[in-house]
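Hi there, hope your week has been kind to you so far. Thanks so much in advance, here it is.
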Amino acid sequence: MTFAPLLGSGMYQLASQWRAEKAQMDLATNTVGSPAANLFLNLDQERRLTAELQANPRESSREQLAKQRAVTDQTVSAFRPLAALDTSGGQEGLTDAIARTERSLGLLDQQRRAVDAGRSSQQKAFDYYSGVLESDLGVLTALSHTEHAEVNSQAQTLIDLFWVIDMIGREDAVLARGWETGHLTREEYGLVADAAGTKKHLLRSRVIPGLIGNESQYETLMTSKAWETMTALEGRLLTSGSSADSDQVTLRDAAPAWRSSVETVNAQLLQLLSLRLENVSKIGYSHAQQLFVIFISVTAVSLLAFALVIVTSWRLTAILRRRIRHLRMDAQQLQERLPDVVARLERGEDVDVDAEVHVVEPTPDELGELGQALNLASRSAVSTAVRQAEQHRGFQRMLQRIARRTQILIGLQLKKLDELERKHEDPEVLEGLFDLDHLTARLRRYEENLVILGGGQPQRRWRKPVRLLDVLRAGQGEVQDYRRISIDVEGDPWVTERAVGPLVHVLAELMENATTFSKPQTPVEVRAAAVSRGVAVEIEDRGLGMEPEQYAAANTLMKSPPQLDVMTHADDVRLGLYVVARLSASLGLQVEMRSSAFGGTRVIVLLPEPLIVDRPRVEVPSAPDATGPQPHPQETPGEDAQLPTRSRGRAMAYVTAPAVSPDRDDAPPSSDPRPLPQRVRQASLVTELKVPANRGEQTWPVRDQPSRSGATIGAFQRQSRRRRTGDDAFQLRPDGSPEPGTPSTEDR
């Protein structure tokens, strides 16, 4: 099979080279070369006759020019179709050269009319015809660049002959002006001198040394009588021009001798040009024909060899087909078995490597070695998969073990903070303890993230349903910037006990993302309402949002969370989204992210109907319980009553201390007899979310829905200062507003 591409490549290269050389030779000799050469020769004649007419507008000169123009028009008509010719397979630069010549020929009629009307100067007409001839020489030069090096070398001499003819034509056209006036300007003298020197250099150093074969008869071209006459006239002109001091160079009356010698030399040059063109064509076509013969020969031999290879291969294939078929069946079985092994490993099942690997019986030849290699490959693949699965499970177990130990420490820290909160009454100390309590709750959530990413589940469990509002508040309490979050719940939906812990975790992660990726001053709105398929919770921020591609990627992650290896995603900032996706998949939540109308992100969490329950019926106890909620008393305790004792699970901000009698000496002047508010840990939590209080502690009746807010803490601090300082009156600023720290009407 390797022989076929090599054979095809070699045959293609030979065929391409043969077609390229043949096409280039056709363009150089017939299609483009002949019209371009005829155009060059006729434009050279028209340039000289135009110069003679401008020098002496005789009737004979006009008739000769008219005849020459008619012949030139025929060559122009033959050249113009070349502009539309497809020369993509021809010489490089040929298309551009033809286009330049075509543009120059477009001004030919305009130039002729200007000459006939006397509007064109002699120098302008000379420059125009010389420019067209140079463009045409560009076409001929491009044609000389072929794929064959020998053709290129011989064609270069041909181009030099065209330049020699052009130089003689330039001399002839410039001298045609001076024969009538008997002198030339210095500029015209310079043109003649340059053309004569270029012509002599080309013939002596490039044309004559390059003559071959039957062209050697023209080696005496520069020693012929006509050439000597022409060069003698040029010599006298150059001598008189170099010795003259004026702006004009005098010409002797040698026009007939010049005309005769130039025509003779041009005739000899045209003969040499035709002979060289014939020789170049013969060399080019001969080489192309040789390539064609080689191509046919190589093709025939290659086809025979290819047929022999096919027959030999068929016989070998028939012998080895049966054994290869058995090996293929074994490989297919391995291909089907490996994905099943990997899937079982992902499900946590144990896999026996020896039982899963099917051993191929070895034989003492190359196919036997292939069977042994297949045995090694299958065993290596299964062993590697088992080892990686065991390493992954081991890392997950280690991660969960570390996270569980950290959670134990966090639990001990929460217990210690609870003891300190019950022990201290100083508002500043309590404020610091509350902040530590809040940070510890967040740290507990982060440790649960590690457990979830390690394949485990959060250990927080509830035995009773919980109101959705309390679940949202619990999630809000685990967010650093919780004050920016506003919660609005329509109705009174309740969440089943098995979904409380994971749902709090999911909502906390989403709320923290909303506060983290939005400005500190902007609010985060959380809304919940019943829909046709359950309850929808919307979390909307006013941050920068994400690109549509990022929204699509996040929603895809929510729908199908991958099997995450945290070792490979250590630098991924979306670990929180992985946790949300894992928990949502286990609960059956539908999480979708969209662009918000405020420019931020809007997250919709749909709780399905199985996670929503009716409000449980509350049984009223027959006797007051020290740990249960009590109705708020309608009247204030008596004057001699003591302040209530702090108790777990009761919001002391809603429990009033005894009123101070107005006639007491230490009573501050105030119209508000209410006592200082007191605070109790876990008062803002619903009953199902509280840690049970000690039975031995004294409890006080509270309102149905206590809450610990910033306003209550502020009121507590202001009341404390007022009782310590004994100043109950408003302290006003000069502008009439209350002084900071002075209790307001709302705080009373």
User: Anything to note?
Assistant: Residues 622-678, 693-712, 724-748 have pLDDT under 50 and may be disordered. The longest helix spans residues 255-346. The chain is about 60% helix and 5% strand.
